[in-house]
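Subject: Sanity check before I submit

Could someone independently write out the structure tokens for this chain? I want to compare against mine line by line before I put it in a report. The sequence has 200 residues.
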Amino acid sequence: MRFRVLRQMDTHARARQLIDAAHAADPQRAADGRAAELVYADRMEAWVERLVAPATPALRLAARAQHLERWLVPRTTFPEGRAGYLTWRRSLYTRQAERARELLLAAGVDAAEAADVATWVSKTGLRTNLGTQALEDAACLVFLENEIGAFAARHADYPREKFVDILRKTWRKMSPAAQAAAAALPLPDGIAALVREATG
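---
Independent answer below. Compare away.
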């Protein structure tokens, strides 16, 4: 039994290494010089660990695989507009899920566990699958805590109503626990006012 537990720990560690090696190839760099997707993976895993106690090794791996090799499929490779955006996003979910499964299996992770990770990363069963919801919650919280300022700067041409609508949709995707965590975030005044309007 002890050998089996140690073997599982080894396979999870190998899977983590494979996922992070894939992230390290991201050409975009964060402020600290690390690959942007490694920074994102750390933030996703940290939020999952805060929201789910205890977070299983598989769920932590899924959190790290949320944007697995996303940089290989730029948004510009799909048509402009909302339909193009949704098609791009769905294709990413499928691609990232299959790539995560592939890496976990290569690391020796059990096939059923690898399938669970693929389900969560593909966003299958949102609201009904606890693992999928945990990843969605973490992604929304990473967006609100770390990305919303840059997003607003990139889309300064958006009217206020559009920002409020985006935040309202983000809020609706989160579980009550994630909403409570989001409400406690120290957001810039302008962003906080938009969030209050979206959630009020």
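---
OP: Matches mine. For the report I'm noting this point. The chain has a mean pLDDT of 93.
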